[in-house]
Amino acid sequence: FQKIRAVYDSNPTRFKTLQNILEVEKEMHGSAWPRTGATLALMWLKRGLKFMLVLLQSISDGEPNLIRVNALKAYEIALKKYRGWMLQKLFMGSVYALPYKSDLLKALEKGKEVKEEESIEKIHQFLSRVMPILDAIYEMYTRMNAELSYKA
Q1: Which domains does the chain have, with CATH numbers?
Q2: How confident is the model at residue 121 (pLDDT cuts 50, 70, 90)?
Q3: Cβ distance 22 to 146 under 8 Å?
Q4: Rounded distance, CA 70 to CA 146, Å?
Q5: What is the dihedral of CA 20, 23, 25, 27, to 10 degrees?
Q6: pLDDT tens, 37-67?
Q7: Is the bond into 34 cis (omega within 30 degrees of 0)?
């Protein structure tokens, strides 16, 4: 995020939108683009956001109380194809440290006692607002041929 912000802050008029950043970086970096700069940082940020949104969607859809099930689903959809063998194994091991759904929902409510249905409704509202934005960023990357498929 800091890399994207730094590019924006360097010239807010020129880099008014994310698309402006990609277009200017494409022109500036030539054949190194999109493997550099804010374009690359935004690519990984959008993938991480997709992981979080798929995780929240899975939780709000009423799937099991074990968040590792939701996290594994989100990882399969959003990140696995971009990760090498070692990072995949590290992730698979780390999911066993995740809390239960009820504990996560309580944390999202900052410790307040709130009915699960109310928390789930807030997640649905959040997803309905954020998913169209993320979809637009994915569409922009596809349209500009900026998506990379290499494994990290």
Answers
A1: 1-144 (1.10.3520.10)
A2: very high
A3: yes
A4: 29
A5: -140
A6: 999 999 999 999 999 999 999 999 886 778 9
A7: yes
Which tokens in the block code for residue 42?
């935004």
The pLDDT value given to residue 100: 87
Residue type, 89: K
β partners of residue 66? 100
Please tell me whether residue 39 adopts helix, strand or coil conformation: helix
C-beta separation of 89 from 47 below 8 A: no
Element (H, E) at 94: helix 85-94
Q: What is the pLDDT of residue 111?
A: 84
Task: Indicate the burial class of 90 (C-beta count within 10 angstroms; 0-12, 13-18, 19 or more).
Answer: exposed
- The torsion angles phi and psi of 100, rounded to 5 degrees, stand at -75, 160
